[in-house]
Each structure stands twice: as C-alpha cells, then as structure tokens.
Specification:
It is built from 15 helices and 22 strands. The protein is an alpha+beta fold. It has three domains: 206 residues, GAF domain (Beta-Lactamase); 225 residues, Phosphatase 2c, domain 1 (4-Layer Sandwich), CATH 3.60.40; 120 residues, Histidine kinase-like ATPase, C-terminal domain (Heat Shock Protein 90, 2-Layer Sandwich). A hairpin with a 4-residue loop joins strand 10 and strand 11. Helix 1 runs parallel beside helix 7 and helix 2 runs antiparallel to helix 7. It is elongated.
C-alpha cells in the first residue's frame, strides 16, 4: 500500500468549515488530473484524500474504461468488472491488504462496494459493526486486519462523469479520528464528481490515441518482403501524445533484378490529417517503385502528387535503392535527415547525400548519391523523432546518435530497437521510424550472372548460349527453352529499337529473372498485331510465357526484364 501521510491522521478537512472545504475542493482541481493518464489520475485522487480527508483510500476503475471503452450505466444489473488502480494510506495502515493494484478487484466480500457500483450511489457506514468488516474488505483476512488496525468508519462513492459510471473510490478512518458524517459524504461526492471528469478525459484521450495509432499502423507495411542480398530490420514507435502521431512512415519494396527500395518519410504535421496524407504518399510511392523508376524520379513524382492533395501538406522523404549486383546503394533525399552508414568494423558516419526540398514544396529535380558498400555494412534510415530533443540542439543529438551506433555490436543491429540508437540522455517525445538494412551480397552471388553482349547480330546467339549453359549449371534445364525465347526477343528489340544490347543479367532467387539493357530512350509496349504483320508479337509472347515483365529508364537508356517462376522443389544456386 502506498504511503501518503504520517501518523494516525492529520488536520482533517472535515473541521475546516465551509470556506476551507471549498478551498480543498478547488485545490483538487489543480492536484488531480495533471496528466491524461488513467493510472496517474487515479493515484492522484487517492493521494489527495490521505491524510486530510481519510486515513486510507483506494480507487477502482471499470475494466471497460481501462480499455478505452464506455463505462456502465448507473443502476444496471450486477457489478461491472473493475480493476484496482490506486491505494494510499497513513503509516499506521500500511500493513492492510486491499486489492492488489493492477489486478481485478474481488467482488465477493466487499458488499458495500458492490452496492455502490451496482446502484451508482454512495454508501456510508459511519460506525462499522463487528459483523460488517467482511462486507467492507475484499477478503476475510483483510477484514480481520481492518478490525485490528482500529478502522471504524467506511465510505465509498461512485465515479460518474457525463452520466456514465467509471468506477468507485472508497475511504476509511481509524483510531480516534471522527467517523465519516453526512457532511463528509457530500464532500466526497463532490470530490468524486470532479475527479470523474478527469478520469473520463484520460479515457477519451487514450481512446483517441489508440484510434490514431491503429490507423497509423494499418497504413504501414505488415511484413517485410523477400529482399535478395539485403537483411532489413524495421521499427516504428508512436508517441504517447495522440496529437503527435500520424506522419511517419517507411516502406520496403522488392524491385526487378533483385534490387530493393527502402523509403522513410515524415509528413510535417500530426493527427488524423497527417496519417491520411502519409497513407496517400506511401501508396503513390509504392506504385512508382513498382514501375521500377529511379529514386530521384520517384521523389519528383511524389512532389507532384503531394501538390495535388487538398491538405496542402509537405513531407520529408528519403529513398535508397540497393543493387546486389555491385553491392551499392543509390540514395536520394527530399529534405530528410542524412542516413547513417555503419561499416563492417562498426565505424558509423553520415552519408553526404544532396538534400533537396521537401516533397510538396515544388522544388525539383533531386540529385542522388551512389554509395558502394562492403559486405556486412549497414545503412540506417530514420525519422527526426529519433533525435529530436527539447533540451539539446540537433547537431549534438546527431553526434550522440553516431556514438550510440558505434557502440553497438554488429549482431545487435540485426534486431535493433529505437531505444538502442536513441541518443543517451534524451527523452523521445515524437513518433519515430528506424530502418536498418545490412548488405549481404554473398547471399545472391551464386545466383547472379552478368554478361556484356556484342552490339551486332551475334548478340542473340550469345545470349541464348549464356542462358542455356547457366541454367544447366543451376539444374534448371527445364526452363531453358522458354528463357532462350524470352532473351532472344529482348535482345532483338534492343537491336531494332535500342541501338544494340548492352548487358544481359540473370538472377535466380525465389524466381528466375532475365534483363537486357540498351541505350534507347523509348519504353516498349505491347502492340496489337494483325495476322499480316511480320512483327509486333514478341512482347505478347513474353507476356504469355512469363509471370510478369516490365521496363524502366536508366541514366544511359533503359532496361527490359522478365520473370519466371522457379519449379517447386528446385534447389537454389549455391556457390561452388
């Protein structure tokens, strides 16, 4: 039982007169409800009444209230389930055994509390008779302890706000202190009425926060997709304040060719409006990434989309694309905090990515930075909620972030949490996102092959030969006929429309992918070919034979790719 006073009583409010009692009630409005937390509010009520009003106090709230739901209607049938939230007592009564805080309240023996919660009316027992202790205490042992401690008076009042029953507060007096009177009952009822409003405000606050957090989480990825050559760990932590939730997001998207796109963003705003904007931007960004656009073009298109939103909000965003073929990240920033790169030896540093204007500001284009990384390196993306502080400037917080990252072991980063990287001594007050991507190119090296093709008519034959030989080495000879046909069409299109093929790339992971690059600017499209046309059916064949296909522009031209499903039970390529 929590200590709240000294001795067997104190200067009681019951003897202060009408003016003193009114001042006491006014003081309650300041002392109770200092936060919008249910547990804290209940404890403040118990502490405020001991020892001036009672020698011991306990506060129970309905289980439904603790879950953010509505309370019960006074006068209902049966006692609603309650949970003990707070207790307080003078030193002489600390040995008593009320319902343990945090546990469901007993509802068998404390019949007076049952009556109060069932009818929604206070119960006053000025002088507890010997046979009534079992009706006051939650257990026979607790009743005996009350009797031995000299407890002689009991009062329980309901906590009712806006016509809804939220819980109850009960009080006891012991020793030579005057028993509760009808005037004390009226005083306790007024106090409970005021405290109940604070409890209800905390309940509504918690419910709003849960709604916003639920919406926020529903708009974030539910699972991390398969990312060849890259191990991704992510963490999102909302803030306790519902008005500060709603703007941060992250995304992990697999791209053709085994590449992976990583995105973190932060809408400059909070609440439901920011959450809605975040959801729209993430949906647009994911659609653009599915088209395999370069990260700078993704941010440019996001900027155009953000300017069309009615909310007129802006957001910071950072997009990074990892290519396992050359173990590199291409990073583009739209006003976002700089990413951090942790080397295999644990050394941490910020990447000097050119920082463009935030999305929605209307200032484009964006410039990217290509960063080759060593195996075991980790790219850390985050939102500013990780480093924000009310007491320290951003530069010192970023320095602390570097020190926190350098102090972590390599294995710790595989399951890193926000608390692991948050600068020491800082108290996070904003929501935050953390995304850690570990480069593991060796995991895809056995299933990745790249060839330079000749720029003349022999390119198709060379491509078919490379494909068949490699599929035989991977024990996937059953896919050779279709793959040869597909690669022939891709190379033929590159010769006819793209100025000649550049490179042929094959990746065998959970699927088999082939792609051919060229220098042509125009992306291919499926055409409707008539029976008399000599061409125009190549992409139709690829569309029918493959799981999916697509194309994307590059800095030097474009890439056209196609994917096939790997037969069930086929072994993945392994390093020799």
């Amino acid at each position: 039982m929590r200590r709240a006073g000294e001795g067997t009583g104190g200067p009681g409010v019951e003897g202060d007169g009408a003016g003193g009692q009114l001042a006491w009630l006014n003081e309650a409005s300041v002392r109770i409800g200092s936060t919008l937390d249910l547990v804290t509010t209940a404890q403040e009520l118990a502490d405020f009444t001991v020892p001036r009003f009672a020698d011991g106090a306990a506060v129970d709230l309905l289980e439904s209230v603790l879950h953010g739901e509505d309370g019960a209607q006074p006068g209902g049938s049966g006692r609603p389930a309650t949970r003990a939230l707070a207790v307080a007592a003078i030193d002489a009564l600390l040995h008593l055994e009320p319902d343990p805080v945090g546990e469901l309240s007993a509802n068998v023996h404390d019949q007076f509390a049952n009556e109060c919660l069932t009818l929604g009316k206070p119960v006053l027992v000025s002088h507890i008779q010997p046979d009534e202790f079992v009706r006051v205490a939650p257990s026979p042992r607790a009743a005996e302890l009350l009797r031995r401690a000299g407890v002689h008076s009991y009062l329980v009042v309901p906590l009712i706000a806006r016509g809804v029953l939220l819980g109850a507060a009960d009080f006891i007096r012991a020793g030579d202190r005057a028993p509760f009177s009808a005037l004390d009952l009226e005083l306790a009822t007024q106090l409970a009425s005021r405290a109940a409003l604070f409890v209800d405000n905390a309940r509504l606050y918690e419910r709003e926060r849960e709604h916003v957090v639920t919406l926020q989480r529903s708009l974030l990825p539910r699972a991390t997709p398969h990312t060849p050559g890259l191990a991704v760990n992510h963490c999102y932590a909302p803030t306790a304040n519902p008005s500060e939730v709603g703007g941060d997001w992250y995304d992990v998207a697999p791209l053709p060719g085994g590449r992976t796109a990583l995105v973190v963003g932060d809408v400059m705003g909070h609440g439901l409006a920011a959450a809605a904007t975040m959801g729209r931007l993430r949906a647009v960004g994911r659609t653009l990434m599915a088209m395999d656009m370069a990260p700078d073009r993704v941010l440019a298109r996001l900027d155009l989309a953000a300017r069309d939103l009615e909310e007129d909000q802006v957001a910071t965003c950072l997009c990074a694309v990892y290519d396992p073929a050359d173990a590199s990240f291409t990073v583009v920033s739209a006003g976002h905090p700089l990413p951090m790169l942790i080397g295999p030896d644990g050394t941490a540093s910020f990447l000097e990515v050119p920082v463009g204007a935030p999305i929605g500001a209307g200032v484009i284009p964006y410039d990217g930075l290509r960063v080759p990384v060593e195996p075991g390196s980790r790219l850390v993306l985050y939102t500013d909620g990780l480093v924000k502080s009310r007491t320290a400037d951003i530069d010192s917080q970023l320095d602390r972030l570097l020190r926190s990252a350098s102090a972590l072991r390599s294995t710790d980063l595989d399951a890193v949490a926000l608390s692991d990287l948050a600068p020491a001594g800082s108290e996070r007050f904003d929501e935050a996102v953390l995304l850690v991507a570990a480069a593991r190119p060796a995991a895809v090296a056995a299933g990745l092959r790249v060839w330079d093709l000749p720029g003349d008519g022999s390119a198709a034959g060379a491509a078919r030969r490379h494909v068949r030989e490699q599929l035989d080495l991977w024990h996937l000879g059953d896919l050779a006929d279709v793959t040869e046909l597909v690669v022939s069409e891709l190379v033929g299109n590159a010769l006819r429309y793209g100025g000649g093929p550049g490179r042929l790339r094959m990746l065998c992971d959970d699927r088999l992918l082939v792609e051919v690059s060229d220098t042509g600017p125009d992306l291919p499209q499926i055409q409707h070919a008539s029976p008399s046309d000599e061409g125009g059916r190549g992409l139709q064949l690829i569309n029918m034979l493959c799981r999916r296909w697509g194309s994307c522009r590059t800095a030097t031209g474009k890439v056209v790719w196609a994917e096939q499903d790997v037969p069930a039970g086929a072994a993945r390529p392994t390093a020799p």
